[in-house]
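Researcher: Checking consistency across runs. Here is Endonuclease/exonuclease/phosphatase domain-containing protein again:
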Amino acid sequence: MVSRPIRVPRSLLAAAVALVSVAASLVGCSVVEPAAPAPLRVLQLNLCNSGMATGCYTGRSVARAAQVIRAEAPDIVTLNEICSGDVDMLERAMTDVHDGTVAAAFQPARNGRTGEPYRCVNGQQYGVGVLTHIPAPAADHEVHAGIYPAQDPADPEQRAWLCVEASTLFLACTTHLAYTSSTLALAQCAHLVGTAIPQLHADGRYRPTVVSGDLNLRHGGTPDVRSCVPADYRHRHDGGVQQFMATADLRIDATRSVSMERTTDHAAFLVTLTLPGQGDPAH
C-alpha cells in the first residue's frame, strides 16, 4: 500500500509561517505590565505629649507610638500634640521597617502672645508632624506648612497645618484644630481643604492627597465635620474627633483603631488605601 502525501492548503501554511515569525520577533522582548496599584497605610496619632494637658499626659505615648509603627509599618504617620524631639525617635522607628527614604517634618503651633513657636513643658517646640516613607527610586520631597488665619484670641496656642509632598507619589497633610470652638475648628478645616491644599495642587502640582488629624469635629456633630469634607473627597473617622480624608483617586480599603495602651487619650487610627499604580506599559 502506497501512502499519499498530505497536501496543506497554502493559506494555512502562510498563517503558520506568520505566527512563527511573530513569535521569533518577540524573543528577547520582555513585556512589562502596568504597575499594580500600591497599598498605602496611614497612621494617625494624637500623643498628648506637651506635658500641659495633665489629664492625658503620661510621658509614655511616644515609646508606645514607636511600637505601633514597628508593628504596623505604615507608609505615612500623622502626629498631633507632639514635641519637636519626638519626631527623631519616631523617624527611627519608621526607618527600622522601611527601605528607601523616610522624610520627617515638624510644624510648631504659634504662641499668639509672643509670636514665637509654642512650647512644651520641657521647652521643646510643640506642634504637629508628618513621617512619610518614599519608596525607591523616588526620594525627593517638599514640606509645606502654615498658621491658620482664624484663631481664638483667648487661646495663646495658634493652630497650624503641615503637608509633605512626597516626590510625584502623594501629598500627606495633618493638622490639630481648635478645641475651644467647633465653629472655629470648622473654619480652620475649610481653610486647609478649601484654600491651602488647592494652592498646593495648582500649577500642575496635583498629587493624590490625604488629610489625617485630630480636627476636634465629629461625624454627626454640630457643626458636622462632613460640611468641611470636599465633595470629591472620601472620608472616614474613628468614631470621635480623629478624621481622615482622601482625594477620590485613592480607594479606602479598610480602617481600624489600634490600642495605645492608655498612654494617651486617643487610640491610633489606621487607614489602608490603594494608591494608583505608577508608570505606563512598556517593552
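Researcher: Does this match what you'd expect to see?
Model: One thing to look at in this run: The longest strand covers residues 38-46.
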